[in-house]
């Protein structure tokens, strides 16, 4: 009886012990599945980020994942498939190498993989891209740049140079001349015609239709002739992908996008006239950002026209303050009108001469800037380059000059960029990036609106032992 009693006791004890062992094993399986699920998720999501676009990093120091993966069309479903593949492979990592050929203790498989939220480069008007550019620039010395820009912009805006309508101002005096009228004479045919005033301002004004670049460049044919189809790029694209915008974690880590830093970033990464970059499709990229035309010539021409308007306004204001030059214009006007016996014309003619003189001096300024020289916003007598007699021979009076005081071409561009609408600037900057990346092998259809830098994934794992778990994680370049 005693021996049988011990056998029953042992049997009951083993039942309890084995139940405890199996419970512990099952608990270990559950914990292992959860832990491996976390590891698989981390590895998979990091693997997705490891597929960042190499050319975008190389050319623009930006980290984004292209959801087209070099294909014809970007779709977040492509990234979901990549994430599914990575996580599934890691669920079965090590198969065939189990101890004693045993079965898979976890038997995990990936179920649902979704990416419900992602930050595309173009989201919120390019704020996602600008946030990365701001982060890349890091500790850029904004203070000195901002102080200099603010001072120069203050000079321009304080005298309304950036808004003054020089054409309307000039037309006021030309209209006065037309209202007074010139004497008439009879021709050999018996008809009457006005006696020409021979105003040298008319010779200068006749060149206005020639185009600024044709007047100020020694060799206009050397200007880049590149032309692009703007409908191919993001600023004109109608079927843009839309993400979920800036994620809070990116803003908390890297800070808000900074417009001034972004402008400095553009000058580091983009070329302009006289500082072109080999990688670029459009050679005058900053000029494109300002003008938005489809050819290098038109973009440079538009910027040159704006420079000319600014310089005309500043130079006219200077002439009005220079008594010696005012006297020269007065003497020339009196000489012209005395012949006509119309002294009332002297005053408006004097001002047309001053406007023409400011125009010729401004052409010289633009020529100097495009030639690598410097021109101050407001001149002194020492800075003035042209004489009043240059009005009759405008082209011949302009000379090469790479010296001078004041601002250079890049600094004038910086002022223009600073005054430009931020949304327009960002859209055109993204055009430039797409143009350049598409020139590289395998990126012929690259689109910034298909690139993300942060994403949230919702994943599910199942086990053949009857368990399933879900997880949501957010990863990104921040």
Helix content: 40-55%
Distance between the termini: 75 Å
Supply the helix-strand structural class: alpha+beta
Mean pLDDT: 88
Give the low-pLDDT segments.
Answer: none
What would you call the shape? rod-shaped
N-to-C SSE string, H for helix and E for strand: HHEHEHHHEEHHHHHHHHHHHEE
- Please give the number of β-strands: 6
What is the radius of gyration? 36 Å
The number of helical elements comes to 17
Strand content: 5-15%
Largest sheet: 4 strands, antiparallel
Describe this structure in words.
The protein has 17 helices and six strands. The protein has helices at 2-49, 54-60, 76-91, 123-137, 142-158, 166-180, 200-205, 212-216, 248-254, 259-269, 285-291, 296-321, 323-340, 346-370, 394-397, 409-419, 422-437, and strands at 65-66, 108-120, 184-186, 192-194, 451-463, 468-476. The strands form two sheets. Strands 1, 2, 5 and 6 form a four-stranded antiparallel beta sheet that branches. Strands 3-4 form a two-stranded antiparallel ribbon. Helix 4 (123-137) crosses helix 10 (259-269) and helix 11 (285-291) crosses helix 12 (296-321). The termini are far apart.
């Amino acid at each position: 009886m005693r021996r049988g009693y011990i056998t029953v006791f042992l049997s009951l004890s083993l039942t309890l012990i084995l139940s405890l062992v199996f419970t512990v094993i099952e608990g270990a399986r559950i914990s292992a599945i959860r832990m491996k699920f976390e590891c698989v998720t981390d590895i998979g999501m990091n693997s997705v980020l490891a597929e960042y676009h190499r050319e975008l990093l190389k050319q623009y120091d930006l980290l984004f994942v292209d959801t087209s993966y070099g294909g014809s069309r970007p779709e977040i479903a492509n990234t979901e498939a990549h994430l599914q593949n990575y996580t599934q492979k890691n669920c079965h990592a090590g198969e065939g190498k189990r101890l004693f050929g045993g079965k898979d203790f976890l038997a995990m498989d990936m179920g649902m993989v979704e990416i419900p939220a992602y930050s595309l480069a173009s989201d919120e008007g390019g704020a996602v891209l600008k946030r990365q550019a701001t982060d890349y620039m890091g500790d850029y010395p904004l203070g000195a740049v901002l102080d200099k820009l603010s001072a120069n912009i203050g000079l321009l805006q304080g005298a309304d140079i950036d808004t003054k309508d020089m054409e309307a101002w000039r037309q006021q005096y030309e209209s006065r001349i037309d209202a007074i009228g010139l004497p008439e004479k009879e021709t050999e045919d018996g008809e009457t015609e006005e006696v020409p005033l021979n105003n040298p301002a008319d010779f200068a004004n006749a060149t206005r239709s020639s185009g600024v670049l044709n007047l100020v460049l020694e060799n206009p044919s050397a200007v880049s002739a590149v032309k692009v189809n703007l409908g191919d790029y993001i600023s004109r694209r109608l079927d843009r992908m839309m993400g979920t915008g800036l994620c809070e974690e990116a803003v908390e880590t890297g800070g808000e996008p900074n417009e001034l830093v972004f402008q400095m970033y553009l000058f580091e990464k983009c070329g302009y006239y006289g500082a072109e970059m080999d990688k670029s499709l459009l050679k005058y990229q900053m000029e494109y950002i300002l003008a938005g035309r489809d050819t290098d010539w038109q973009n440079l021409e538009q910027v040159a026209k704006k420079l000319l308007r600014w310089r005309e306004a500043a130079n006219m204001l200077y002439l009005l303050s220079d008594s010696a030059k005012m006297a020269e214009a007065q003497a020339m006007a009196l000489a012209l009108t005395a012949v006509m016996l119309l002294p009332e014309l002297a005053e408006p003619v004097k001002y047309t001469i001053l406007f023409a003189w400011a125009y010729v001096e401004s052409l010289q300024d633009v020529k100097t800037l495009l030639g690598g020289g410097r021109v101050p916003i407001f001149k002194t007598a020492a800075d003035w380059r042209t004489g009043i007699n240059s009005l009759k021979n405008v082209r011949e009076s302009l000379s090469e000059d790479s010296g001078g005081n004041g601002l250079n071409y890049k600094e004038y561009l910086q002022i223009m960029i600073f005054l430009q609408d931020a949304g327009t600037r960002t859209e055109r900057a993204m055009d430039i990036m797409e143009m350049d990346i598409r020139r590289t092998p395998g990126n012929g259809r690259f689109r910034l609106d298909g690139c993300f830098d942060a994403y949230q994934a919702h994943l599910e794992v199942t086990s053949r032992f009857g368990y399933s778990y879900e997880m949501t994680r957010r990863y990104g370049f921040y």
